Amino acid sequence: MKRFAVQDHELVPEHILLTPEEAQQVLMQYGVEARHLPKIHVTDPVAKEIGAKVGDIIKIKRKSPTAKESIFYRLVID
Amino acid sequence: MKLPDAWLKRIEDLDLPVSLKDALKSGLEEAESVTEEQFERIIKEVVEDYEHAKVEPCEAVGVVAAQSIGEPGTQMTMRTFHYAGVAEINVTLGLPRLIEIVDARKIPSTPTMTIRLLPEYASDRDMAREVAWAIEATSILHLGSIATDLAEMNVVIELNEDAMAQRKITAEEVAEKLRDATGLAVDQNGNTIIMAPEEPSYRELLQLVERIKKVTLKGVDGIKRVVIRKEGDEYVLYTEGSSLKEVLEFEGVDPTRTKTNNINEICEVLGIEAARNAIINEATETLREQGLQVDVRHIMLVADIMTCDGDVKQIGRHGVSGEKASVLARAAFEVTVNHILDAAIRGDVDDLKGVTENVIVGQPIQLGTGDVQLVAKRIDEVVR
Question: Could you tell me the residue range of the domain that residue B311 belongs to?
Fold first, then answer.
């Protein structure tokens, strides 16, 4: 059985794991705490694929039908 | 005209969506000649227009989205079944499907998959058909006939040579599968298979027949039928029943373009972001198919709310509406008495911050200009 990368699927946008410094910068920029961000489970197939841990912040580059590309953030929870 | 690098850089640095930047660039390129002064003015106008077009703070986007989807929804056909082309695969569409999407039902009423194939399989009808047969769940009824011999108290299965060749399975494999599935002795002789129940009783015998009929000999459990359709210059498989995880691993299937209409399954296999995209696609497609045009932004908002917790949750009592902070807002939606009773027992307090609860108590809602509050300082404080 062959395996394929979940991120290659056309429904899945690009997920980028942020370093703690980058994450801090994002929180500063929006003036929010991490718990206010939308969530993603640590068991999510993409989160597993990029090796995210609980408490990390994932940056998602969505393909948007209106803005072409939009940035979204999710906090990894268990 | 060709844009100088400095201008391109200037456009890139603007706080605008990518689509607007692209439109701005191509618009400028088409123009005959633009002076530095004109360029600056164009940029200023574009940014101003963009800021103007943005949703203002305190705008009730949720209410607008609800109405924008709800009003066209009233014009949808109540009960529609659609047959996808000649391939008579039944798919729920119209209002029932829209309800199914926002209710985040675990299994849709008509699960179906769209399987796209790798280039070498997609162009060849015979190869596409082979993939289809490999995926379709094969039961004993596809391969031959099954009969009970009451004199001998056993089940006699006569396999059809052609049917087995077509589905690439041998009599030995069938016997092996049946042995594994039932745990009984299987007597295979050529294309005839004989099985007997543990206890020689009529009841056991008939039950055994039913069990044998249910065994999946080959293919994916739950995929009852696969049909092939030609779309453009590639063959695409449509299925009745859905099992994304297993189908993605099949030889010849293009795992990056294969989809299902089961949103929960997408969430499990491809993640929450894929589920969000699936909600948007399915909802837009359902509305579009009925000839209704709803701005995608409203549907995006619904999809965002449904997926913001990391799971797909429904818009309803067990999801978005049930999680509202306000007791009155929850009570206004469904099961009023339960919410008020529970709140009374717990001693909940309603801050009257939302729309619904303020309408209930007859106060101005905190939206738009109603959200701005004036705080007065006593004059002696100001003077001091």
Answer: 56-82+262-323
**Are B334 and B361 within one domain?**
yes
Q: Is residue B126 part of a domain?
A: no
pLDDT at A31: 92
pLDDT tens readout for residues A31-51: 999 999 999 999 999 999 999
Nearest CA-CA distance, residue A59 and chain B, Å: 11
Summarize pLDDT for B278-336 with one digit per residue, the tens. Answer: 999 999 998 998 888 999 999 999 999 999 999 999 988 888 888 888 899 999 888 89
Kindly determine whether residue B296 and residue A65, on different chains, have CB atoms separated by under 8 Å.
yes
Which one-letter amino acid corresponds to residue A1?
M
Mutation site, B12, B272, B280, B300, interface A, largest A CB count within 10 A: B272
Does any CB of chain B come closer than 8 Å to the CB of residue A61? Answer: no
Total structural domains in chain B?
A: 4
Minimal Cβ distance to A46: which of B17, B271, B308: B271
ipTM value for the complex = 0.94
pTM for the model: 0.86
How large is the average pLDDT for residues B195-207?
82
- Kindly list the residues from chain B whose CB atom is less than 8 angstroms away from the CB atom of residue A45: 268-271
Q: Is the pLDDT of residue B196 over 90?
A: no
The CATH number given to whatever domain includes residue B334 is 1.10.150.390
Q: Which one-letter DSSP state was computed for residue B369?
A: G
Query: Does some domain include residue B27?
Result: yes
| Cβ pair B274:A9 closer than 8 A | yes
* CB-based contact, A59 to chain B, within 8 Å: no
Q: What is the pLDDT of residues B111-164, one digit of tens each?
A: 999 999 998 888 888 888 888 888 888 888 888 888 888 887 888 888 888 888
Show Cβ contacts of residue B374 under 8 Å, excluding neighbours closer than 6 positions. Answer: none
The verdict on A44 touching B (C-beta cutoff 8 Å) is yes
Q: Do B272 and A9 touch (CB under 8 A)?
A: no
CA-CA distance, B1 to B112, in Å (whole number)?
50
Q: Measured at the alpha carbon of residue B94, what is the angle toward residues B313 and B312, in degrees to the nearest 5? A: 10
Chain centroid to Cα B206, Å, comes to 40
Provide the terminal-to-terminal Cα distance of chain B, rounded to the nearest Å: 63
Q: Are B265 and B31 in contact (CB under 8 A)?
A: no
- Which CATH code of 3.90.940.20, 3.30.365.10, 3.40.449.10, 3.30.70.60 fits the domain covering A6-77? 3.90.940.20
